[in-house]
Amino acid sequence: MKIIAAFAVGLALAGVLSAVPARAQNQHSFVSSQGNDANACTLAAPCRHLQAALAATISGGEIAILDTAGYNGGTTVTITQAVSIVNPGGFEAAIAPPSGSTGIVINAGTNDAVSLRGLSIDGAGVGQTGIQFNSGASLTVENCVIRHMSNSGIFFLPTTLTSALTVSNSLVADNSQDGILLFPTGSATAVFNRVEINNNGFFGIIVKGESSAAGNTINATVSDSVAAGNGTGFQSETVPGQATTSVMISHSVAANNSTGVLASGTGATLRLANSTVTGNIVGWLVANSGVVASYGDNYIDGNVTNTGSLTPISKQ
């Protein structure tokens, strides 16, 4: 009789447990220096780290950062959904990439848009990459500081068919290799507005078509931005049989780099409009049938030398 009674109690408990719903996810989640990852990530009960908040947030939701703190807990933040992570301002929302690893990795779905605002990502010379975008529809980076990586500040290498990158009002500086590297396997577009790309060992902004098949296009526009103290300020690069690359630079400055602007490879074009190229060892460099084109309204002076010829183009 005791065995039968115990069995009956077990069945009753199982029924109750199965009726308990899973914890609901939030449209808006919150993280705080005083939070706890066991919390529901609500405003009243915020989480401590971004990874816990991501798990508590629906696809397409938003995570708000409430005060100054480090928010990755010594691990890489991995994003697999559409989401906005927002620091409304007035304090530092820090991400410290683990040694030899990445601060934020994005492995989102084909239609997922990811937005990051107000983050400070500092690799301290040991973090490898600030933000690495592997898949998703788009990445928007706004009001961020990304610096001191052993590799690149932003590594944009989506495997999705088409993708878009937007960076605005941000500083990407002091990285051992590249400030911002676009290296998609499909077609991509990028817009850089009011971005400072300074003191990066290899390239400030480089757009590469070498991993994307012929017929694809990679188009980037740079406006009101500065590339200073880099190996190369702005570069458009491809090889025969791969995607064409185009970089339009408007109202921007390439100063005090080893090379100011560079286009390399058949199908690689870099256009200059109302921009300044000065103080570089090589002002412009044209290689392997690339094209550096000028609308004739630029200020190109004070460089040690130039390599190749500018292609004049008319305004419409």
Distance between the termini: 94 Å
Tell me the radius of gyration: 24 Å
Low-confidence stretches: 1-22
Number of helices: 2
Percentage of β-strand residues: over 45%
Please state the average pLDDT score: 93
Q: Based on Cα principal axes, name the global outline.
A: elongated
What percentage of residues falls in helices of 4 or more residues?
under 10%
**Strands, count:** 30
- The helix/strand class is mainly beta
Largest sheet report: 20 strands, parallel
Which helices and strands appear, and what pairs or packs with what?
Layout: H1 2-19, E1 26-31, H2 50-55, E2 57-65, E3 69-70, E4 77-79, E5 83-86, E6 93-95, E7 102-107, E8 113-117, E9 119-122, E10 129-135, E11 138-142, E12 145-147, E13 154-156, E14 162-173, E15 178-182, E16 187-198, E17 203-208, E18 217-223, E19 226-228, E20 232-237, E21 244-250, E22 253-255, E23 259-264, E24 268-273, E25 276-278, E26 282-287, E27 291-294, E28 299-300, E29 305-307, E30 311-312
Parallel strand pairs: 1-2, 2-5, 3-6, 4-7, 5-8, 6-9, 7-10, 8-11, 9-12, 10-13, 11-14, 12-14, 13-15, 14-16, 15-17, 16-18, 16-19, 17-20, 18-21, 19-22, 20-23, 21-24, 22-25, 23-26, 24-27, 25-28, 26-29, 27-30
